[in-house]
Amino acid sequence: MFVIKNEPFLETEADALLIGLFDKPLKFEEVLEPLDQAFSGQLTELVKNGDLSAKEEHTSVIPALGHIPAKRMVTVGLGKEKEADFHAIHRSVQKAAKQSKPYGLESIAIVLDSFITENVTAVEAAEAVTEALFLARFEYTGYRTPGNEPEKQLTTVVVYTEADSDEIQAACKVGKTMAEGTNTAIRLTATPPNMMTASDLALHAEKLAEQYGFELEVLEREDMEKIGMGAFLAVAQGSAEPPKMITLKHNPTDVWEDVLTFVGKGVTFDTGGYSIKPKDGIVGMKTDMGGAAAVLGAMEIIGELQPDQPVMAVIPATDNVISANAFKPDDVITSLSGKTIEVKNTDAEGRLVLADAITYAKQQRAGKIVDVATLTGGVIIALGKDKTGAITNNEPFFEQVLEASHEAGEMIWQLPLTEYDKKRIRTSDVADLNNSPGREGHAIMGGGFIGEFAESTPWVHLDIAGSAELTPGVMTRTLAILALSDQSE
Ligand code: BES
Ligand code: ZN
Ligand code: ZN
Question: Strands 332-334 and 340-342: what pairing?
């Protein structure tokens, strides 16, 4: 799959030779000079004419025409060398890979040296380039009847470098694994809801457990009735689909205490229930399990890369539909924690399923909890779609999550949760809490409600309602990086 070579790249026979160009005259010449000679000086002309450029994200596909054994060369502009970092390389290579997709490249040779700067090591560059390649090449084709031409996959990556080949090999594996976990999340989210039910999510978790040796537990409706998961079951009450509370445990040590835990909203379709969504608002609600998808994608990465610390995933999976049995506005339900909830809006179902999932996670010895959820339309109004909204009860833990998000290149923005906000969530004539205190501070009400169940356990809530629409698979890498990072402080 990955072949690391310490020899001249000009000899490669790959479908494409991938070259990064920094906007710095010296580096530009260094990389292009041997190629220019092979092309009998014609590359200099291309530079003059602007066909070849180091401007960020400028991609050129140049047929080799027999000048070099590779079929073509793909150059990608990386911008100013001083300003370039991991993310700039990632962005530019993704663009280049997308643009060269029609060529169906099966083998790519990377001239790694051309991606290295004072700020980006060979290892980082190898990870950035491979991650970007495998992210960009993925496409969810769903259930379209296939044409005659099968889609060509990228199967061979040859890396030309003078750096340590084991280190580069490992970095390539990390890059590819990060991309594939994200692609899994994208695929799960894009799958139509009749083919991605709670049972299908459980089946996916089962496959992960088999492949990576995770411990798997799936609670069925009867199990949940026995322990009193009244909030989750209220949402699932109207559904003919069996609901599932899915738990995966990665346990590399003998100690199962204070476990880092990811909780993902797994609403496989959200009609809104009796507080039904307008017809245009229902379309697309198959993505309401995007949080679960990010968590499962992260668990795939964790399975591949085997972090030292224990990690747990908890996914409440059900759809939110209407039937004679469905729960109604004005119902009062009792959550697993014992707290009672007045249902004011059956479309505010995410916080209900997450409430019980979080209480359950704590019973299973969660020590730090990140919940990921397509929770509110309000977060889109507040922050737009390029940011994931966050709420926390613990600043040091939030800082760790934030750092992981920086590394992943995924933007998180914290929203405040005040005592005034909490009071609104705790206002009901008939119960301890209400699930919909009104439009003001919408996204905060949703997150704050979940926080009532996290209580004093360090917790970060990530609302991806907007960000998962703009960037499907979002937060998969942030979670994985968090699990791979040192949690000791
Ligand atoms: N699944 C939705 C949130 C959502 C909206 C996700 C748009 C993706 C795109 C959630 O369950 C919901 O309906 N939230 C309501 C809450 C309200 C009724 C308190 C909302 O945001 O309008
Ligand atoms: Zn809803
Ligand atoms: Zn929802």
Answer: antiparallel
Residue in 181, 385, 351 with CA at minimum distance from that of residue 267: 351
The radius of gyration of the chain from alpha carbons, rounded to an integer in Å, stands at: 25
Choosing from 176, 351, 362, 368, the catalytic residue is 351
State phi, psi for 314 to the nearest 5 degrees: -125, 125
DSSP label at residue 105: -
**Does the Cβ of 239 fall within 6 Å of ligand 1?**
no
For position 489, what pLDDT does the model report?
A: 59
Burial class of 242 by CB neighbour count within 10 A (0 to 12, 13 to 18, 19+): middle
Candidates 110, 108, 90; CA nearest to 159 is 110
Residue 295 tokens read as 């968590």
271 within ligand 1 shell (Cβ under 6 A): no
Q: What is the pLDDT of residue 303?
A: 98
CB 433 within 8 A of CB 341: yes
- Average pLDDT (146-168) is 90
Over range 352-377, report the average pLDDT.
Answer: 99
Whether 345 is in the pocket of ligand 1, judged by its Cβ within 6 Å, is yes
Nearest Cα to Cα of residue 54 among 101, 115, 9, 8: 115
Compute the average pLDDT of residues 240-265.
98
Whole-number mean pLDDT of the chain? 96
CA distance 9 to 17: 8
Distance 350 CA to ligand 3 centre (A): 5
Sheet holding 2-5, edge to edge: 2-5, 156-160, 107-111, 16-21, 72-77, 59-63
Question: What pLDDT, in 10s, does the model give residues 414-456?
Answer: 999 999 999 999 999 999 999 999 999 999 999 999 999 999 9
Query: Residues within 5 Å of ion ligand 3 by Cβ?
Result: 267, 270, 288, 350
Helix (H) or strand (E) holding 489: none
Q: Which domains does the chain have, with CATH numbers?
A: 2-179 (3.40.220.10), 191-484 (3.40.630.10)
Give the per-residue pLDDT at 487. Answer: 73
Q: Choose among 227, 254, 221: nearest CA to 239.
A: 221
Which whole-number Å values give the CA distances from 259 to 202, 355, 381, in the listed order?
A: 21, 18, 34
